[in-house]
Hints:
By secondary structure, the chain is an all-alpha fold. It is built from 6 helices and no strands. The radius of gyration is 16 Å and the shape is globular.
Amino acid sequence: MNQFWRKVWEICLLKAGPQDLPGTQSWLIKAVFAYFSVSFVLATMNLSVGASLASAFVDVVLLLLASYVILWVKLTPDRWYQTATSMAAVSVVIGVFALPAAGLQAYLGTENSIVAFPVLILIGLIVWNLLIFAQIFKYALEVNIFIGALFSGFYMYLSLKVMNILFFQAD
């Protein structure tokens, strides 16, 4: 288990790629469960428990579906286990780093001027996540980093748009 998370950390530092993780269903399930858990905890800071469960579920489905479709378009679906595992595991790491900032932001609310600090941290984490996903897509699709960044941006946009429409639209 420690070896797995060490490799995930190397992916986060852009020193490794999805090919360095095991391409098995069991590791994908473990990474997805961890991602679901972190996503649920993060969502509870802004949503009810029921909506947080739904949000975490949709988030996981989007990750799995988008990673498969992106690989399918490039005709490399055989790399899906490693790609989806790395995306989920990296998202766990980013989510763990985001927990304190998101908690502080939720606690302070939008009226407090110091809320800019956690927002800046969260923006930095989003940029880091985009870079990591670009690296993952670069290796998984065997393309240059710019094409990987396009896929990363597409995935991030799609994910944020769907989550916003489903869970954060004003009444």
